[in-house]
Amino acid sequence: MIPDNEALFTGNSLVIRAFDMTIIPAGKNVHIVSNRGVSGIEGNIATGVGYAEKARRRTTLVLGDISFLHDLNSLMLAAQSSTPVIVVVINNRGGRIFERLPVAGFDGIPDNWVTMSHQYKFEHMAKQFDLPYRAADTPEALSAVYTEMLAQNRSGLIEICLSPETDLAVFKARKEDKF
Fold first, then answer.
1. So where are the chain's domains?
2. Which CATH architecture is the domain 7-175 placed in?
3. HSE-up of 121 (CA within 13 Å, CB side)?
4. SS3 153
5. Mean pLDDT over residues 10-15, rounded?
């Protein structure tokens, strides 16, 4: 759905793995950008806004909830950006990358060592920075709110709310090519 000649900034961990499992339709002129920090979770919003400003290209920035929380203050940059940045945060309530890595099969490792479980919703954070906010929990809802954000032609925040269990099941099915 990203319009031609715009940009997709992918976050790290789960987000980049999910995009890696997705086939991007040919014929689209979408610039794809990513950032890999020291731990991979810091500065993604700031980097995405910096890219949008320098390239003068509206950017859709997709990142996970923990990356979002680690760079929350950069929503101010998105709000002030002269080039719109649509921040799409995948909220599966706690990162959850390690549930998909070999460490998940190790006995005796407590869940709180491999996830950062939380119950946060991000609407109030968007309001704090005067950013339009929409939530989606189905592909159809995402399509509708993303189209709405594009029409506003300003920075905004879309929160995709996922059940951690369903998210993991879909990820595993896609990885095994059963989805």
1. 7-175
2. 3-Layer(aba) Sandwich (3.40)
3. 10
4. coil
5. 80
**In angstroms, rounded to a whole number, what is the distance separating the alpha carbons of residues 159 and 157?**
6
Provide the CB-side half-sphere exposure for 63 (13 A, CA).
Answer: 31
Q: Collapsing DSSP states into helix, strand and coil, what is residue 87?
A: strand
C-beta separation of 106 from 31 below 8 A: no
Nearest residue to 170 (alpha-carbon basis) of 148, 132, 147, 137:
137
Range 33-68 burial, b when 16+ CB lie within 10 A, else e: bbbeeeebbbbbbbbbbbbbbeeebbbbbbbbbbbb
Structure tokens of 95?
């990162």
Handedness of CA 89, 95, 96, 102 (dihedral sign): positive
Count the helices and strands in the chain (H runs, E runs). 8, 6
Nearest to 95 by CA among 125, 75, 71, 118: 118
Per-residue model confidence as pLDDT tens digits over 25-46: 666 799 989 887 555 678 999 9
Predicted TM-score of the model (pTM): 0.89
